[in-house]
Amino acid sequence: MYDYLIAGCGFAGAVLAERLANAGKSILIVDKREHIAGNTYDYYNNEGILVHKYGPHIFHTNSEEIFTYLSKFTSWRAYEHRVLASVEGQLLPIPINLTTINRLYGKRLTSQDLGSFLDGMAEKRKPVLTSEDVVVNAVGKDLYEKFFRGYTQKQWGLDPSELDASVTARVPTRTNTDDRYFTDEFQAMPKHGYTELFKKMLSHANIHIMLQADYRDLIATVPHRRLIYTGPIDAYFDYCYGKLPYRSIDFQFETMDLDCYQETGTINYPTSNLYTRITEFKYLTGQSHKKTTVVFEYPKSEGDPYYPIPRKENQDLYNRYKELAEMQKDVFFTGRLGTYKYYNMDQVVAQSLTLFKKIAKEDDWEG
């Protein structure tokens, strides 16, 4: 008899497995894939280069609690991610900053000048409801067309005018020359990779791992008291209200006989090519190797569910499933797929740590 059967071995499930195991509970964690670590799984390819199987995952958080918690399972390599966008034959910093504007328009603006310059370009919109509204309201149509519209259309398969404001609100505009993609207090990569972090997180005598297994096949045959589910919430309920829309990605890897392929970790292609971006892994991992591996990302509508699509009608559909979920006895839903939220890694960790404390409080044992 297991105390908990956990479906899904990404951050959402693994964090709960670790916390519950250390609270004395017995855990069986299962995953359909042949590996642990979910979408953060990394491995050494045939050339010996450490790559992320499901696209680049760069860790960043403002939460000292989360960083300290994960530090129990890994040492870190300091890394601040930088992204360039290929626009009109130039590679320009994104998020848009002072350097971006000066290079694009041939200006010599100062930080004090930039605010009024952007105000002059902005087309104020009220209310701000869509992703298009967010950008045009802040920087105007020209920058919107050059940096956001094409990229968003490729990434989401929808025009920004059809997407919730939260999508482009994630990418700020800066009046200084800070060219870091993230500004969080803690920015680092697991020194030996995410898979090694997960191995340590799950290395507890109370945790049993079963891979290439479907939790549905085990529910009736493996005795357990409770289920923690981190897969797509609509799949759990057999799509009774219809499928929740997701975006997927086709990852195309290429290894080259070069020390370096591009000048930064990621380059975005907002207006050209079918792919959205190219990432070179050696920037992220710090690995020294005579060759290099990059990944091209081609968004698509079918395939593994990676990104919940932020639109009101999708949220309304999710809320119907959420009502069903709240009626389930001894079943907990968590993670990006289980709660249909476009979460970063640290937010998923925070969600599962919060759920653990809730379980402990409800059962009246120390969490």
From TrEMBL:
SUPFAM superfamilies: FAD-linked reductases, C-terminal domain, Nucleotide-binding domain
Cofactor (UniProt): FAD
Record-linked InterPro entries: UDP-GALP_mutase, UDP-GalPyranose_mutase_C
Family of this protein: Belongs to the UDP-galactopyranose/dTDP-fucopyranose mutase family.
Record bears the keyword Ligase: no
Originating organism: Sphingobacterium oryzagri
GO molecular function: UDP-galactopyranose mutase activity
Name this protein carries in UniProt: UDP-galactopyranose mutase
Entry annotated with the keyword Repeat: no
EC identifiers of the protein: 5.4.99.9
Keywords: FAD, Flavoprotein, Isomerase
All residue ranges annotated as the UDP-galactopyranose mutase C-terminal domain in the record: 146-342
Top EC category: isomerase
